[in-house]
Every structure is written in structure tokens, then in C-alpha cells.
Amino acid sequence: MKFTGEVIKYGDNVDTDVIIPARYLNTIDHKELASHCMEDIDITFASRVKSGDIMVAGDNFGCGSSREHAPIAIKASGISLVIAKSFARIFYRNAINIGLAIVECPEAAEAISNGDTVTADLDNGIIYDDTTGRQFKTQPFPEFVQKIIINGGLVESIKKGVIR
Length: 164
Known about the structure:
alpha/beta
């Protein structure tokens, strides 16, 4: 799996209440969730994010509640991949379950800047900062995780018979 996009970067401890504020949890419409994604920390996010962009963050990304709305909002906004120093465990599993590609790589998360163009080759576990020429090593995506992401999430993968 390869991803290339422009980076939108955030800091440490971005919680699920910031990713999608609780006042919008009364909808399951993915486009509606995306339109409010990150608005309490970055009011410009929804208007500037482009399909394929890559989100980069610090430690403990997705901390807080266990709501699936948070990774759904990120994915529906057009973000193709989230790279962070670390993820809250429940957020990590929810992201994979809904088919949002995420990867922990502290070195990349620290070095990559907002606005950089990044290419991530997650078959081989390599993240390239195309803007600076730096390269970072991470764990390749296991084949079963790739299948889940390619097929749009765990439920869709099961329905299609890709995952049992």
C-alpha cells in the first residue's frame, strides 16, 4: 500500500472530542462528520483538507472516548493515512476497523512538517518526506490489515469474504 499526500500536522494528546466534537455525535452521516472534523482545534481543516492528504500527529493521538465517529470523520474528510508518534489503543483499533490507514513512527512524526509532501510505502515500511528527502523506517502493514483497509473496513471485509 502506498500513500502520497500533503501533510496536515497536529501536536500531542489530540483527543476524540477535538477530532469530532460531541455536539455532532447525533449523526451517523459521514460527510456531516467530516465537515466538523478537527474544528475545535483547527477551524480551517474541513475547508483545506484534500482527498489523499496525510495527517501527522504527536503522542497519544485519539485519546479520550472510544467513539468510532473520530476515525470515521478523519477518513471521510479525505485523509488517506495518519502517522503519529503513538495512538490511543482504542482509537488505533477503531481506525483499522473502519478502514483508516494509521501507522506509528515517532521519528517521522517528529521530523515531518506541516505542508510537506509525504509518500508512505507501507508494504515495505518506509515513509519518505519528499519535501526534505528524509526517509523513515516503520513496520510494514500486515497483509490482513491491508485487506481490511482496501476493502473499506472490517465489516465490509467480512461481508466480502476477504476476512473470516
